[in-house]
Amino acid sequence: MSLRSVTVPDSLASFLSSGGLVAYADSRSDDVEKPQLPPRKKVVVLGTGWGGTTFLRNLDSSQYDVQVISPRNYFAFTPLLPSVTSGTVEPRSIVEPIRRILSKKGGDIKFWEAECFKIDPATKKIHCRSNVGTNLDGNGEFLVDYDYLVIAVGARTNTFNTPGVVENCHFLKEVEDAQKIRRSVMDCFERASLPYLNEEERKKNLHFVVVGGGPTGVEFAASLHDFVTEDLSKLYPSVQHLVKISLIEAADHILTMFDKRITNFAEDKFGRDGIDVKTGYKVVKVSKDAITMQNPAVGDISVPYGMAVWSTGIGTRPFIVEFMKQIGQANRRVLATDEWLRVRECDGVYAVGDCATINQRKVMEDISEIFRVADKDKSGTLTVKEVQDILEDIYERYPQVQLYLKSKQMNGIADLLMTAKGDAEKESMELNIEEFKKALSLVDSQVKFLPATAQVASQQGQYLATCFNKMKDAEEHPEGPIRIRAEGRHRFRPFRYRHLGQFAPLGGEQTAAQLPGDWISIGHSTQWLWYSVYATKQISWRTRALVVSDWMRRFIFGRDSSCI
After folding, report:
1. Domain that holds residue 425
2. Residue 24: inside a domain, yes or no?
3. Which of 55, 197, 266, 494 is 20 to 30 Å from 434 by CA-CA measure?
4. Taking the model in full, what pTM does it have?
5. 151 closest CA partner among 337, 3, 399
6. Residue among 322, 323, 252 nearest 281 (CA)
7. Cα–Cα distance between 290 and 367 in angstroms, integer?
8. Does 284 fall in a domain?
9. Rounded CA gap, 407 and 403, in Å?
């Protein structure tokens, strides 16, 4: 076949020069399928408390398909619940709608007001039930699948199976609980003011019992005392002298998690204020009209009461109990996670806050592997220098080692490790496996469990969100300590709780604070520190303004006593 020259007509040349060819190419490119991005991993968050909300606020939601499930559609600033019971702060001032929080994140984050009642880790599905609507079957149940599940459902009040507690006592875990207590206090005063009651019946109605001498119970008793003395005594002058507040604690002292100086001050102050503190008493039964207590010295006693608030610790929610049975944790009190907040023996499931506790890995469980990793020359013995070469990784993986060294209670190897730098003779000393085990045999006594507080849950939520945000990068560039039982490094550094201090409001504009560095502060100045910290910690400017205005209103007009 011969090649012939072709003359291009003028009209076609004009078409090409005017960009017709480019337009044709563009139209052809539209027909080519664009490469689709891989689907985002689905992250399901159960709960809108401190852990769940902090996780959501810090999570890069553009990387994941995020779904939130909770029976309440708001976040509550729970440390101010005792203030709600006395009318110092209004309930709506301490809550922020969860949808408003999510809307500030941008992206397509879904929220469903429902309650999870079953987790199926085998199929990675959760069973939920809505309280605000029903499906075609009429039961409001639906399934949600997940790639990652973050359990942040908190805990319920622990009644220790004491008869009559659920039926006759108030709890103080939710905003609704605080509202019920507030109404109940006013009902007690109104009943005591009725004309047909005798004095014994009035005393019974005005006897307020608080069971549990922890921070919540103590703060509620102090808040109630202020409410009675500063406001209700003026409104109910004929019965105000009959009011009695009792605080019952099974231990020998109240506020046992605080420094003894704070404990002693709180007990002395409550004594001066007329609050009856009964330590060493265990409540064994609660009936409609009386509370029965046991004391080794006096035996069983029964006291009549008008209202009782039960604040004695936390218990696990029923569906979490069932979930623990499925994954082999049936004998535990709460969910066990590792140092990265991953639920043990459960792929893709994390837990934060009161519903879980970190099961810190013991040094003695891995002592042989630690020895193997440190023994780089495979000599069967360790020098101090070899141990020091991996000491930072050991500190990070097993924080109890550093705590033990700092306590200066370790003999032999501890003194050696602390003084070996720059001493060639000591660095050349060698330890066999048995000597190494003996040196570290008591290290695990420094393993500590974290308290069930908002501070812990918030820090865990922030840590977990940071891990999720760096998930892809950490696969290629791990930043954690060396793996003792495998090759390479862990993707992330383990979670470390940083204690920022704790408050104990004691009424009368006095607060006790235990801050880092063993700094104890008690008095009126600490109350103003409490005001500033709690105002700063509010989740939005809206709630911050509302809480501060409530405090100002109380200073000017007093607390509201209406039964609303």
Report:
1. 363-446
2. no
3. 494
4. 0.89
5. 337
6. 252
7. 55
8. yes
9. 6
Q: What is residue 435's predicted lDDT score, i.e. its pLDDT? A: 81
- Find, among 262, 256, 372, the residue nearest to 312 by Cα: 256
How high is the pLDDT of residue 11?
A: 45
Burial class (CB in 10 A: 0-12, 13-18, 19+), 491: middle
pLDDT tens for 120-173 read 999 999 999 997 765 555 678 999 999 999 999 999 999 999 999 999 999 999
Strands 148-151 and 41-46: parallel
Tokens of 532: 């500033």
Q: Rounded to the nearest 10 degrees, what angle do helices 175-192 and 215-227 cross at?
A: 40
- In 234-364, beta strands by DSSP E: 244-249, 276-279, 282-286, 290-295, 299-304, 307-310, 314-315, 335-337, 349-351, 356-358
Verify that 219 and 307 share a domain, yes or no: yes
pLDDT digits (tens, 9 = 90+) for 365-413: 999 999 999 998 888 888 877 887 888 898 899 998 888 877 755 544 5
Q: Are residue 296 and residue 406 in the same domain, yes or no? A: no
In terms of phi and psi (left: phi > 0; alpha: psi -120 to 50; beta: otherwise), the region of 321 is alpha
**Residue 368, helix vs strand vs coil:** helix
User: Strand, coil or helix: what is 483?
Assistant: coil
Alpha carbon 519 to chain centroid distance?
24
